[in-house]
Design brief:
mainly beta; eleven-stranded antiparallel beta sheet; 1 helix; globular
């Protein structure tokens, strides 16, 4: 069980009630979503589960398992939106072959997704408190959500690929947002999460929206969790604008500097809206000189990315 005593700013503690399902605003873009992501560099595999529910009570989910350890093509499944019971909570969330059981304490969860091609089955055990955008003094932008949390944890489980089963024990990350989600205000962004065992966890979101650059995130290391103050990011891309690696220098509100260097081994595109493409990537990270894992999501307007790919490299 994590302790809120590690928070540099105690007022940023999150009420565990927010680990559960929320009553959403009755607006066209009202939604709630929870992804879990895991990177397994030793197997050259990364995967995520992602589920959402709209303000009208329709829910869906998506799975992707990708990287050289999977093969040339990712294993993926999308479960179309359908009505779900209003009283179905995140302590027992079930959509076809996907189940998610959170303890509603921001501590423990169990995820399982079964398809003919692959089965993901793992537990998540948090090792630091959730970071809340709403409790950050800069707030949560209204087009992102009413609030949004980010949290790392220890993951233990199995991944079946065809007739091969991989047992794994490592670290992963989850987020949980609720409220309005409008994808169009984002002009471009980098969203990063990385861990070194259970001793270090880093998250930053550098996004350009409405003509301004915004920074959110946290650093948990040396037994202290502090919000990100500034971040400088340098991403390298191939000729199709898939990220191949990146570095980041992060300053947190406690005055600490954190250095991230990541080599990407696999990418996958998630399209949450036809006009926005999210290029996901898993990689091997070095954080403050220690080996760990990293995941970066780079967002681009779909038409812009198509133009660059068709006319570049410049």
């Amino acid at each position: 069980m994590y302790s809120n005593s590690v928070l540099a700013e105690p007022e940023m503690a999150v009420d565990p009630v927010h680990d559960g399902r929320h009553v959403l605003p009755k607006v066209a873009m009202g939604r709630e979503s929870i992804p879990y992501i895991v990177v397994l560099p030793e197997h050259q595999i990364a995967f995520f589960t992602y589920t959402w529910v709209s303000a009208t009570g329709e829910a869906g989910a998506a799975l992707a398992v990708f990287g050289p350890g999977v093969g040339d093509a990712p294993i993926q499944q999308r479960l179309a939106d359908r009505p779900v019971p209003a009283d179905m909570g995140f302590d027992n969330w079930q959509i076809e072959g996907f189940s998610m059981k959170q303890d509603l304490k921001f501590d423990h969860a169990h995820l399982r997704w079964e398809t003919p091609e692959a089965t993901v089955d793992f537990t998540f055990e948090a090792y630091h408190p959730p970071y809340s955008y709403g409790n950050d003094p800069r707030g949560c932008p209204a087009y992102c959500a009413t609030d949004r949390i980010e949290q790392a944890g220890k993951v233990t489980g199995t991944l079946r690929l065809g007739d091969k089963t991989i047992a794994f024990e490592g670290t992963g990350h989850r987020d949980h947002s609720w409220g309005t989600r409008d994808w169009i205000p984002f002009q471009q962004y980098e969203w990063f999460v990385g861990q070194v065992g259970t001793e270090t966890s880093v998250h930053f979101w550098r996004f350009n929206a409405l003509g301004k650059e915004h920074i959110r995130g946290y650093v948990f290391k040396d037994g202290l969790m502090s919000r990100v103050d500034t971040v400088k990011v340098d991403v390298t891309y191939d000729d199709q604008y898939w990220q191949t690696g990146y570095t980041a220098d992060i300053m947190d509100a406690a005055g600490r500097v954190t250095r991230v260097e990541t080599q990407v081994f696999g990418c996958y595109t998630l399209i949450p809206h036809p006009e926005l493409s999210l290029n996901e990537s898993g990689g091997s990270a070095i954080i403050d000189g220690k080996s760990g894992v990293g995941w970066m999501e780079c967002a681009w307007p779909t038409s812009y990315l198509a133009h660059i790919r068709a006319n570049g490299p410049y």
